[in-house]
Design a protein that fits this description.
Blueprint: H1 2-9, H2 14-29, E1 33-39, E2 45-52, E3 60-68, H3 74-81, E4 85-87, H4 98-103, E5 108-116, E6 119-128, H5 136-179, H6 185-200, E7 204-211, E8 215-222, E9 234-235, H7 240-248, E10 252-254, H8 257-260, E11 274-282, E12 285-294, H9 302-328, H10 343-360, E13 364-371, H11 374-381, H12 383-400, E14 406-411, E15 414-420, H13 424-445, E16 454-460, H14 467-484, E17 489-491, H15 494-503, H16 510-522, H17 528-541, E18 545-551, E19 560-567, E20 581-582, H18 586-592, E21 597-599, H19 602-609, E22 623-631, E23 634-643, H20 650-667, H21 672-689, H22 691-710, H23 715-726, H24 737-740, H25 748-754, H26 757-766, H27 775-779, H28 801-815, H29 827-837, H30 844-858
Parallel strand pairs: 16-17
Antiparallel strand pairs: 1-2, 1-6, 2-3, 4-5, 5-6, 7-8, 7-12, 8-9, 10-11, 11-12, 13-15, 13-16, 14-15, 18-19, 18-23, 19-20, 21-22, 22-23
Helix pairs in contact: 1-2, 1-5, 2-5, 5-6, 5-9, 6-9, 11-12, 12-13, 14-15, 16-17, 16-20, 16-23, 17-20, 21-22, 22-23, 22-28, 22-30, 23-28, 29-30
Length: about 850
């Protein structure tokens, strides 16, 4: 007993105490088995563990089972009486469960209670597989040993209860502050779930809104890896502990969730063993139920129920305020001009329709339409006429579409349609109806002087797109439609993104892409870009953590392997992205190819990606995003990012999407290599056209690079200077021979023709997508610091810095080079000319750097 007393008190948890007790029972009584059946709080069943002797005297848990109680069997009898029971002849016994006796080959047994706090918590059975008598002394000793273990269990429970009480008090204070700070019903309920879950140490929590008549609608949750199947689920009154609360209005507890309740058929509740639920009331009525669930058999005491009830009461007050706020602002959900849903209301409706589509697998489409040439209507006929047209368009849309289609005005002359149960083909066909409706609405007003048309963008929902991501896809399709011309309709897809890139080549942030290509140019191999990309994006986008995966092989079902990762320097926390290998389904690649996605947690992002491996360890705080880079149906890279913000910033997501796409282009040899080869090809064309021009360009390139570096320009800008200098005379390939090779000075007309070569050079470069970033440098290479240059008369810092550098280096090289109609200038003359031109023709800072470069060249080695 002394040995057990010390050993039991050293137990770390109830399972450890039970194992130590079994060890002493084996040592003292030499039985074949020890069973410990932990009793459910409601005493309807127990979870039994079979122990057998193990090596070094440490018992091993051989099996576990669930046992429903029957008053006529041993466990139930001991539970009711609280005293031991002996059965020397198990096979013929009427008090031992025959199924368990046969399963465990029991010949004899003794059952003793393990009780504390005035309640039997478990029944300990000593089983002999051969017939055996257990004298009263042995039975009393076994009972005493069980009491020693019970004392240790009481201490553990007291400690756990004190810890929970502290956490509950902290959570209650935190909840009081957080709940009353919100006026959004959904946010209030999400906060309630989180704080309730933390207060009682649950594994997941959820809120149902409803009553006994309507049942409950699942509207909020916490702790679910993938809550999508949960949202929108309707629980019947009496179904689960939440349904029992809706039916009775009283708290409900179940330690046998899968057997003593009508379990809701919901995947999120599959592993629940214990559950507790309390009512939520406001306005004097039962409004719903707050439920907390555990994945193990857990005792729920009065303090737990009281804490949850107090939180539910606080939430009721907050919900009442939120509901009043919601009702007071119902008018704000409607557009005041057209009566249609406004932007926020459309978004809410789209979230609801996505949840429904996830459950039913029915198609869902989002359509954006923007009226073409609407500004001239307002300008020419006044805003009253414009408003009349908008109202007529809205009324026509309402009558044209189904009652359950959501129709809204996003602002200005832009409208949105949310079309449930609508396929991609049907939505595309509907665009013709939309365009006809708009044309008729314009015609009804009278002669506007222009035909009223509309551009349309269509996006179809598929897993794992969110409402915001679906609208974003439709918006980008609409942008393509507008760029094509008026009265066009475009369906979102991978081709849309490619066309958008062609139609808007300058839409990306120049500095970021310049820095990317500067990094690309310093990599010996294009594949090296992927290793550097995570740190580049982490730094440029200001996120906490990034990792990049690429396929291990070309097989479509191959796994992904990490090639680079980065995190915020000095971050003491754990990494969110710790797996070196990952799997993602081919279907997900197809769904995500046109754009990126984000989720509030990494667990939700993994679920959206269909990643098959479980997430290791605990969740790391922060929202996460994924960028899938795929070309021609093949996955090339998967970028994961984590931000400290609760919602991943959309601008950062768009930039990451753009940069990863560019990096894949470099990998495939469609930009980095092609750009270099394109430059070489054009340089060769210049050489073939005019040997002087090519030799001159090479000399200007070397001088311009040194000058740019001395000015401390970024590496990316130095590369632009290099490429611009190499091609700054590319427009001369279109200048007639009689002008290009004229031995004497050019007359006024010839100079006018020659002055066209920067514009011609720009046009040539813009025809090659990989060289478009160099085109502005070439166009403005002959602009003057004082604004007297050509072709656009730019002045000062409005002129690209690369153009300013090339102009000065170009002028210097021209002055020191002999031409048929003049002799070269001396070094002293050229330096004096450069100084005279500083502040008028040239950028003074460029001239200063160039003269320093020339001085270094003049120094003897």
């Amino acid at each position: 007993m002394r040995r057990l007393s010390f050993a039991a008190l050293a137990g770390e948890d109830p399972d450890d105490v039970h194992r130590r007790l079994a060890g002493e029972l084996f040592r003292v009584f030499g039985v074949d088995q020890v069973h410990v059946t932990r009793l459910a709080q409601d005493q309807t069943l127990g979870r039994g563990t079979e122990y057998r002797p193990g090596p070094a005297g440490i018992p091993e848990a051989a099996s576990e089972y669930v046992q429903e109680y029957s008053e006529r069997y041993a466990v139930g009898l001991v539970m009711e009486s609280g005293v031991p029971l002996v059965e020397p002849d198990a096979p013929s016994s009427e008090i031992m469960d025959p199924a368990l006796s046969e399963r465990y080959c029991a010949a004899s047994g003794v059952f003793v209670p393990l009780a504390f706090d005035g309640e039997v918590r478990a029944v300990v059975a000593l089983i002999s597989e051969t017939p055996r008598d257990f004298p009263d002394g042995e039975v009393q000793l076994a009972w005493t040993l069980a009491d020693q273990a019970a004392a240790a269990l009481a201490v553990l429970e007291l400690r756990a209860r004190m810890d929970r009480r502290t956490e509950q008090q902290t959570a209650l204070a935190r909840a009081a502050s957080a709940l009353n700070a919100r006026l959004d019903l959904r946010a209030v309920l999400e906060t309630l779930c989180r704080e309730a879950d933390l207060a009682v140490g649950g594994d997941l929590a959820g809120v149902y809104l409803g009553n006994a008549a309507s049942g409950g609608l699942a509207v909020a949750s916490h702790g679910m890896a993938d809550p999508r199947p949960w949202y929108g689920y309707v629980i019947k009154a009496g179904e689960g502990v939440g349904g029992r609360v809706l039916a009775t209005g009283e708290p409900a507890v179940s330690n046998a969730y899968k057997t003593d309740t009508l379990v809701p058929p919901n995947e999120a509740l599959r592993d629940v063993e214990t559950a507790v639920s309390v009512p939520i009331r406001w306005g004097g009525e039962l409004k719903g139920a707050l439920s907390v669930a555990f994945h193990s058999m857990r005792r729920v005491d009065d303090e737990d129920i009281q804490s949850l009830g107090a939180m539910a009461d606080l939430a009721g007050v907050a919900c009442s305020n939120a509901e009043a706020f919601e009702q007071a602002h119902e008018a704000a959900r409607r557009d005041s001009l057209t009566g249609l849903l406004n932007h926020g209301a459309v978004h809410v409706r789209l979230v609801e329709e996505i949840a429904r589509a996830q459950r039913t697998r029915d198609p869902l489409c989002c359509v954006l339409l923007d009226l073409d040439n609407f500004k001239p209507v307002n300008d020419g006929h006044g805003h009253l006429v414009g408003d009349q047209i908008l109202r007529r368009v809205a009324a026509a849309l309402v009558t044209e579409f189904r009652a359950y289609d959501a129709i809204g005005r996003l602002g200005g002359d832009e409208f949105v349609l949310v079309l449930p149960d609508t396929s991609e083909e049907s939505a595309t066909a509907m665009t013709k109806r939309v365009q006809k409706v708009v044309a008729c609405a314009g015609g009804d007003v009278g002669d506007l002087g222009i035909e009223l048309t509309t551009s349309v963008g269509v996006a179809c929902w598929q897993e794992p797109l969110t409402a915001g991501e679906l609208i974003d896809r439709a918006d980008r399709a609409l942008l393509v439609a507008k760029r094509r011309g008026r009265n066009e309709a475009v369906l979102a897809g991978p081709e849309t993104e490619e066309e958008l890139a062609r139609l808007e080549p300058d839409r990306g942030p120049t500095r970021l892409l310049d820095d990317l290509w500067g990094m690309v140019s310093r990599c010996e191999r294009p594949v090296d870009v992927f290793a550097l990309l995570p740190e580049f994006l982490r730094r440029e986008l200001g996120v906490e953590e990034t990792i990049l995966y690429v396929p291990e092989s070309e097989a479509s079902d191959a796994g992904l392997v990490a090639v680079g990762s980065a995190r915020l320097r000095g971050d003491p926390g754990r990494r969110a992205f710790r797996r070196k290998r990952l799997s993602i389904s081919a279907a997900t690649v197809a769904a995500l190819a046109p754009s990126a996605i984000s989720r509030p947690t990494f667990a939700q992002l993994r679920a959206a990606l269909g990643a098959r491996e479980p997430s290791p360890g605990e969740e790391v705080a922060g929202s996460c995003a994924a960028v899938v880079a795929a070309r021609d149906g093949r996955l090339h890279a998967l970028l994961l990012m984590r931000s400290s913000t609760t919602t991943f910033p959309l601008p950062a997501l768009r930039l990451a999407d753009l940069v990863v796409s560019q990096a894949v282009t470099a990998l495939l040899g469609q930009a980095s290599g092609a750009s270099r080869s394109a430059i070489d090809a054009l340089a060769a064309a210049i050489d073939a056209r005019d040997n002087y021009t090519h030799d001159h360009s090479e000399q200007v390139v070397a001088l311009a690079i040194q000058t740019a570096r001395l000015m401390n320009l970024p590496d990316s800008e130095v590369i632009r200077v290099r490429d611009g200098a190499m091609l700054h005379d590319v427009g001369k390939v279109a200048i007639p021979n009689d002008i290009l090779y004229k031995p004497g000075p050019l007359d006024a007309g010839e100079w006018e023709t020659m002055r066209r070569h920067p514009v011609i050079g720009e046009q040539i470069l813009r025809r090659t997508p990989e060289l478009e970033s160099i085109a502005p440098i070439v166009r403005h290479e002959h602009e003057r610091w004082d604004g007297g240059g050509y072709p656009d008369g730019l002045a000062g810092e409005d002129i690209p810095v690369a153009s300013r550098v090339i102009l000065a280096c170009d002028a210097y090289n021209a002055m020191i080079t002999a031409r048929p109609y003049r002799q070269p200038m001396t070094e002293e003359e050229t330096l004096a000319e450069l100084r005279r031109g500083a502040g008028t023709q040239f950028d003074p800072g460029v001239v200063e750097a160039l003269i320093r470069v020339l001085a270094r060249r003049a120094k003897p080695a």
